[in-house]
């Protein structure tokens, strides 16, 4: 999937709202020394530079940072008038945040690897978040370049809290910015993993989050399977750095969450034939066995929304059985069923519904975690 890097780059300028640019050949004047651009010569920063921060499961080398999970984040603090993001993609979309304010969406194309951001005077914190989930394929960040000179500065500390989310299209954000139930088979522009119940809840709780979620996949059965179980449900991919790379296992010692949230089962139960109750619950236990092998006695929150009463019953039973198995920090949380006017593509919740679900999850997490 690596595209030859000697082809002609096509620049795609993203003019960030409300920011002015400065001349390329003159350093910024009348600024403190630590804010001045010290050189006008082009500066290239490798993707493994320690001043670049990644959030999520990423395979990082001196040549590229590879990823495919939803809401992967790339952050840096730049003293430069302009920065070129080097992205090898074409399948995914990204949010651009400037100093914590949304600025623009990048929709990558296969024939372009350079995406230009005009930053203006002073120093600016830039955060890039992957809007789309792993179903669209992987992307690679090749680093960044300051064409008119610049440098990287220190970032603020990471959030002290961490939450891992394991789920399906709800967690990914499938259709959460869709115009209606029918999105005409076009989904990429309407998916924004930065605005799901998971990411909203994590942000409100001041927690860093990892989303291990795949649209259309379940705990034991994927959507529309003719059988009661599928050979490749979500638990198959849980130990991977990238969903599509079996050869890249994730190092669970690299990031240990304070809590794990699981919302699976909609795809198992939304079409026939549903898995038998004991088969589905056994699948949840198998996933949680992986979770506890990685994180010991981490608190686990099992979620189900009221749209599927049978799933609610099964997840609650799974939580009860987990506690009997010795995993006392297992909790069941029932979420509200989104209203009809809060549904987007293919009956998936819009951002408004995600906000309601996030509030319900936060209310469940706070007393348990003492947050």
CATH homologous superfamily descriptor of the largest domain: SGNH hydrolase
Which second-level CATH architecture of the largest domain applies?
A: 3-Layer(aba) Sandwich
How many strands in all? 18
Q: Roughly how many Å is the radius of gyration?
A: 22 Å
Q: What is the global morphology?
A: globular
For the report, how would you describe the main beta sheet? 7 strands, mixed
The helix/strand order is: EEEEEEEEEEEEEEHHEEHHEHEH
Helix share, percent: 10-25%
Number of domains: 2
Number of helices: 6
Low-confidence stretches: 1-37
Describe the overall structure.
With 371 residues, this protein is α/β, with parallel strands linked by helices. The protein has two domains: 11-153, Galactose-binding domain-like (Jelly Rolls), CATH 2.60.120; 161-369, 3-Layer(aba) Sandwich (Rossmann fold), CATH 3.40.50. It is built from six helices and 18 strands. Strands 1, 2, 4, 5, 7, 10 and 12 form a seven-stranded mixed beta sheet that branches. Strands 3, 6, 8, 9, 11 and 13 form a six-stranded antiparallel beta sheet that branches. Strand 8 (93-98) and strand 9 form a beta hairpin. Helix 2 (197-204) crosses helix 6 and helix 4 (277-295) packs across helix 5. It starts with 10 loop residues before the first strand and ends with a helix.
Task: Set out the fold topology.
Blueprint: E1 11-14, E2 43-45, E3 53-55, E4 59-60, E5 65-67, E6 73-79, E7 82-88, E8 93-98, E9 101-107, E10 114-118, E11 123-130, E12 139-146, E13 151-153, E14 161-167, H1 169-172, H2 197-204, E15 207-213, E16 259-263, H3 266-269, H4 277-295, E17 300-305, H5 309-324, E18 330-335, H6 351-369
Parallel strand pairs: 1-10, 14-15, 14-16, 16-17, 17-18
Antiparallel strand pairs: 2-12, 3-6, 4-5, 5-12, 6-11, 6-13, 7-10, 7-12, 8-9, 8-11
Helix pairs in contact: 2-6, 4-5
